[in-house]
Amino acid sequence: MTAFIAPNLDDIWRAATRIAPHAQRTPVLRSHSLEALVGAELHFKCENFQRIGAFKFRGACNAVFALGEADAARGVATHSSGNHAAALALAARLRGIDAHVVMPRNTVRVKVESVRRLGARIVLCEPSQQARAQALAEVVAATAAVEIHPFANAEVIAGQGTATLELIREVGRLDAVIAPISGGGLLAGSAIAACGLCPGAEVFGAEPTGADDAARSFAAGTLQTNASPDTISDGLRADLGAPNFAILQRLGTRILTVTDAETLAAMRLVYERLKIVIEPSCATPLAAIIRYPSAFAGKRVGVILSGGNVDLDALKFST
Amino acid sequence: MTAFIAPNLDDIWRAATRIAPHAQRTPVLRSHSLEALVGAELHFKCENFQRIGAFKFRGACNAVFALGEADAARGVATHSSGNHAAALALAARLRGIDAHVVMPRNTVRVKVESVRRLGARIVLCEPSQQARAQALAEVVAATAAVEIHPFANAEVIAGQGTATLELIREVGRLDAVIAPISGGGLLAGSAIAACGLCPGAEVFGAEPTGADDAARSFAAGTLQTNASPDTISDGLRADLGAPNFAILQRLGTRILTVTDAETLAAMRLVYERLKIVIEPSCATPLAAIIRYPSAFAGKRVGVILSGGNVDLDALKFST
Predict the structure, then answer these.
(1) Model confidence over B50-76: pLDDT tens digits?
(2) Does an H or E element contain A191, and which?
(3) Where are the domains of chain B?
(4) Closest residue on chain A to B46 (Cα)
(5) pLDDT, tens digit, for every residue of A114-164?
(6) Class assignment of domain A9-55+153-314?
(7) B contacts of A315 (beta carbons < 8 Å)
(8) Is the CB of residue B287 less than 8 Å from the CB of residue B265?
(9) Sign (positive/negative) of CA torsion B133, B135, B140, B146?
(10) Do A277 and B278 touch (CB under 8 A)?
(11) Given phi > 0 = left and psi -120 to 50 = alpha, else beta, which region is A24?
């Protein structure tokens, strides 16, 4: 990997221009009844309506279209069993280049097929971090493809920041922004955009108690990991990335943890009041707003709804 | 009831102005993958995002705010166990007048409570059409409240038509518009707006096979009823109203029937692809587009998504 240079607000503006022909400009929703419930003004940025059903398309699209012609011609590669795989596959197809995606063998078949349908070349590997890293290294060695990491990548972070940029341009100054945190790509991008556009705004990351490496990392001041993540928020099981942690520390971000029961209760409220489909990970910010009301009371809050790729057959609203 | 004069496009424009301070201007969504699936351009008007979660607020709001001061002071009344009850309660509260709602005793408690919370006075009655009509007559006799029928009312029809007016103003000329049909308030309003703004446009009503009185009425040329409606589309069990039928016949509307299995499959597609929460009734238009592809192929189609008030605990996507 080349040296990491943290993106700034200008990079997010450039990302917004770069992805504009391809990404959805997602709507912002509000709910009288939810605002009455929490005592704050809530502006929900609906990335569940983004292409491939999640904010991940912004980062992958920016990273793919930021490549020079020669690099792009080599194709791109990543390992992911989730939304980044689909996002990178679609972005590569839109640019007309190859995408190689390493996925663990135990990935549910429907996810593998959906990434394949988007035109990616799939490489299956054993379900361990080590096997994934090794398979990716082999793909990169064999094809010379450019690795696009799902979160520890400056162009990915800048791309994810465009959701908050759009939100603030649409609704005006916010007092606080909250997004889920896992690897930290979305939250780092959100924090750069929010702190750049609204000096003094507070930025919060919402994290499940069963995968609370970010909360522990902030408490310890050094990067911690999850030994065995245990949460229904399947998009929030990855460990926080080192460059993401550095950005979030510098910008004074705070981490709020929520239980799975709180996440499911918040998810139910989103279905009932906003009438939109979201995945559990995506409900953690609202769960945190409800659990920590004093942090948000009376404020204008931007809530980044990260995605809506939920298994409808397994959908349930309590633990 | 006073003599019924069918509303025209001017009445819908007036309704749009009247309800603008109160109603949501709901978003229009599209889906690349759904359009590829059906081979038509689909513009989904999302009334599940309307206040009280359904298009019904438009009609109730227009009827309540169209009343003169003296009539309004008498309050309004209706019988309904569904979205019209909540819609009328909210509209009355916004105007600062009384709403009396007759509901059958077997209405689920949560629905009764939600209408009560909106400030309506609830009158419970036995669960029969006759008991409902009699209880309403007694309320009107005792209070002098103005009855606002859920669909056989010109101001209600004009109000419901504002959804299609907004849709066409936003996306331009449509070749076809499709909405669910039950009492016919939404479809009559949609047809008046579509035929007025887009001469030559086709208008379709989507109806469950288990409550297909509208299809039979059009086939027979005289109004038919449902002896015992049998459908998961709980919002589509009422019989078509006489004035609504007359409007729809005059405008050349066509009725397309769908099975409950087709409705649930379409509902699943909406959750998966559009990432929004809808109720079964609301999925009948997409089910009809999928069942009768030749009626829509290659056309620009407006699809009125009627509402999103679904019981999340009972949510399922197959029969």
Answers:
(1) 999 999 999 999 999 999 999 999 999
(2) helix A185-197
(3) 9-55+153-314, 57-147
(4) A275
(5) 899 999 999 999 988 899 999 999 999 999 999 999 999 999 999 999 999
(6) alpha beta
(7) 315
(8) yes
(9) negative
(10) no
(11) beta
